[in-house]
Amino acid sequence: MRVAVTGASGRLGRALVEALEDAPFTGPMGPIAWSRADLDLDTLTTKRVRALIDRDRPELVIHTAAWTDVDGCAREPDLAARRNGTAAGIVADACAASKVDVALVSTNEVFDGERTDGRGYAPLDKVNPINPYGASKLSGEILAEEAAGSRLAVVRTSWLHGPPGNDFPEKIARAALHAKEAGTPLKVVFDEIGTPTWTPDLADAIVELIAEDALISGTGGKAAIHHLVNGGVASRADWAREVLRATAIEVRVEDVPASTWQRASRPPLWAVLAPTPMPSGEPMRDWRVAFAHAAPALVRALHGG
Predict the structure, then answer these.
(1) How many CB atoms within 10 Å of residue 45?
(2) Cβ atoms of 295 and 241 closer than 8 Å
(3) Which of 84, 179, 277, 305 could form a disulfide with 186 if both were Cys (CB 3.0 to 4.6 A apart)?
(4) Low pLDDT (below 50) residues in the chain
């Protein structure tokens, strides 16, 4: 199967390309990596996507390209709507016209995070984004489904981390080093709850769904929706403490509510997704186990390695 990945140089895109390179079903040619030079969200047209499809002949396009700066989206909601909403519709429309399946990567932030029963959001639960990033991603889901129908898969995930860094673990580690140097406590948020998800694990899960012909499984003109996250639940404070443990940074920690931080965007406080069962029957591993594999790269980055 020929699989193309948009946003191939991004955090998830590069993990997907690497995972697909090891997948037997992609054949000797491997995956097709579409970078920003191929597909720029700011200049995207159906004609451009159709030209890429005609050139590379994919059977499946995985659309990971997005604007994921949540606060940036809040400051420029119209731009977010174009990059995350309109662009997803364009990609899906071009794929549908060429009879190519399409998978759209989306987010837990299509939900409002106000759930209080301790359950994760299921794929068919009511969506209600509370910030422009979530609204733009939901718009992308809707436009893509209108264009591609049951040839579409929506993959929602949460709290992604992984190469090339500049993610939550690296930011919190660097903040901890600054706090230690300044002799001040590191403030960590205790009331924002979700599941850290390592991009190589998410990529492997998507590849498993493709291999088992379970990714594109919608019916009746409706998209298939998958929630793919590592196992377990954590607060931002829990995650921060795991980062400090892995990096051996000793600093005083102070738990604070999310409202402490003045941000352009308001995050959903309950960011937990109920994971889609995998074809193998084996769930994605616990987030702590995944982070243990990610931590050595973080330590090297902190030491300039």
Answers:
(1) 11
(2) no
(3) 179
(4) none
